[in-house]
Design goal:
This protein is of the alpha+beta class. The chain is 31% helix and 29% strand. The chain is built from eight helices and 14 strands. Strands 3-4-5-6-7-8-9 form a seven-stranded mixed β-sheet, sandwiched between helices. A three-stranded antiparallel β-sheet has the order 12-14-13. A two-stranded antiparallel sheet has the order 1-2. A hairpin with a 4-residue loop joins strand 6 and strand 7. Helix 1 runs antiparallel to helix 2. The radius of gyration is 17 Å and the shape is globular. The two termini are 32 Å apart.
Length: 264
């Protein structure tokens, strides 16, 4: 499965970078979030690859959902964000990513996060996570196994560049965290997985396709993502009384192998 994810992500990243170099206008979706032709081209590429390899597995993809195309899901399905960090893309910051994840029984079991402008990807499955270096021809040149680091006394936190909140500041103060780095897209999960940071609190709205791939990489590297009640963040949330389908609650991602409940 990860081989298919990798091929799809690299091809989508190549299409995104062509648009990135040429420049393009952006539009606004119904929820006022930005979208570009790069999002749409990348999603078409990913959907074609997944549908060919796994014709019986439903795909929940961001732009398709925005267009009203939402398949019925069962125990297993894919979550796709063809261009996570569209604001970064528009503002010419290189932190945008391609996200593809496989969900089974509410858990992200496999995923890939590809940052084409940075030439790096992260993949995770079956308790093994890797960092991939990608050259200008979109070929993988190096693979390195990555793992979260033990929680140090002096933790480093990560926060969203575009969606920070006062609750994040309260969390940092309550946990005596003095260092906080702001970065866009799902790369925050990958930095935890690589052992470059320790915690990522998120107190503003996200959708499942924003988080699933990075969360899969993080869990494969020994970390976890929990809701504010200390339980693992789950996927496939539909018919929610308080929010739309596939919307996430607030959560905290940890770069540590200790139990989720212990950290809550």
């Amino acid at each position: 499965m990860l081989e298919t994810f990798e091929r799809a992500a690299l091809e989508a990243g190549k299409a995104i970078m062509q648009v990135y170099r040429e420049g393009c206008p952006s539009a606004r979706k119904a929820d006022n979030s930005p979208v570009t032709i790069a999002d749409e081209r990348a999603e078409r590429i990913i959907l074609a690859q997944l549908e060919a390899a796994f014709p019986n597995t439903p795909i929940i993809a961001e732009e398709s959902v925005a267009a009203g195309n939402v398949p019925v899901i069962g125990r297993s399905f894919f979550l796709v964000d063809p261009l996570d960090g569209t604001r970064e893309f528009i503002d010419r910051r290189p932190e945008f990513t391609v996200n593809i994840a496989y969900i089974s029984d509410g858990r992200p079991l496999a995923g890939i996060v590809f940052a084409p402008a940075l030439g790096v990807a992260f993949a995770g499955e079956n308790d093994k996570a890797e960092k991939l270096l990608v050259d200008d021809h979109f070929q993988v040149t190096e693979r390195t196994v990555i793992r979260v680091r033990p929680q140090p006394a002096d933790r480093t936190a990560l926060a969203s560049r575009s969606h920070n909140s006062p609750q994040t500041d309260v969390f940092l103060a309550a946990n005596a965290i003095s260092q906080c780095t702001n970065i866009g897209s799902s790369l925050k999960f990958c930095m935890l997985a690589e052992g470059l940071a320790d915690v990522y609190p998120r107190f503003t709205r996200t959708m499942e396709w924003d988080t699933a791939a990075g969360d899969a990489v993080l869990r494969a590297a020994g970390g976890s993502t929990v809701t504010l009640d200390g339980l693992p963040l789950t996927y496939g949330k539909t018919s929610q009384a308080h929010d739309s389908d596939f919307a996430n609650p607030n959560f905290i991602s940890w770069g540590s192998a200790r139990s989720a409940l212990e950290r809550a």
